[in-house]
Amino acid sequence: MQAASGPAIFERVTAHHMVQYSGINHLAMVTGDMNATIRFWRDLLGMRLVAGLGRPGYRHYFFEITGHDMIAFFEWPDAEPLPEKDHGTPVKGPVGFDHVAIEVATEDDLWEVKDRLAAAEIWVSEVIDHGFIHSIYAFDPNNIPIEFSAPVPGVDVRRRPKMKDAAPVAAALEGADPQPGRWPAVSQPTSVSDRAVYPGEGNVLIEDEGTEDDN
Domain 23-77 belongs to what topology? Predict the structure, then answer.
């Protein structure tokens, strides 16, 4: 009886466990010109270049947005800039990306970014009031559409979700919180002893960990 009850209890706990997400580790973009990409993201926007991987025909570099979030770029020799498409403009056919939205801490930071882009003669929009955020729009050297947003004090849709769609889809009418029972429950969770981790790109970054100071 004891052996039979153990897995059942574990299954119930697993079914009710909420995954704790901690943010975007990195967004992975593509460039054909890493030099221009570094000049824009590091030198103009001020995001530190914190990791670089590479070999002939391939590079993968990471820029720090915050102490946790990063944006990364693959450099592939035959990659070309995207056709320019305004943020949020509908398209037809295969598509899975529209724009990257990066939050700044304050309204002053938003205007600082706007002024830096304008001084560099890079197109940047006027400041747009979206109610819960104020935003500007621009493009990086790869024509990746970027939005920079400053939160509006006192307005937090994460804390107080709102649905203002005049004709929301059925799933949206169920509310903001995850709905139980919509997907099969985990019945055979991977045991700790069976959790295998395989080597991949990036291990070279930690080969000398501990031999250099943090600077």
Answer: 2,3-Dihydroxybiphenyl 1,2-Dioxygenase; domain 1 (3.10.180)
